[in-house]
Amino acid sequence: MGLTSELIRIDQELSLKEQSLLDFVEREKAEIRARQKMEREDRMAEREREERERERRTKIELARIAAEAGIAKTPKPKDEPQSTAKALL
């Protein structure tokens, strides 16, 4: 009977180690998924920043072209009070 109880004990130890390993694998998978999600979100945010920067550059270039062609409105300085701008008109 001693051999049977020893085999049962070894089986239980192996089961605990197996469960521990499975838990570890699941935690690692969850970490990998979380990291991949963050990387995807970072890439999307970077694309959005790049798109806004392209739009900003396009607007600047269009304004420059319009100014060269003489069809652009002269932008008001942002720090100039509205009443001063009206007085100049």
- Sheet-strand content, in percent, reads under 5%
> What is the chain-wise order of helices and strands?
HH
Query: Helical amount among residues, as a percent range?
Result: over 70%
What is the β-strand count?
0
Separation of the first and last Cα atoms = 108 Å
Regions with pLDDT < 50 over 5+ consecutive residues? none
- Structure annotation, total helices: 2
Give the overall average pLDDT.
87
Shape: rod-shaped
**Computed Rg:** 34 Å
The largest sheet, given as strand count, sense and whether it forms a barrel, is: none
Q: Determine the structural class based on helices, strands and strand pairing.
A: mainly alpha
Region (Disordered): 35-56, 68-89
Description:
The protein is mainly alpha-helical and 89 residues long. The protein has a domain at 32-71. It has two helices and no strands. It has helices at 2-69, 82-88. Residues 35-56, 68-89 are annotated as: Disordered.
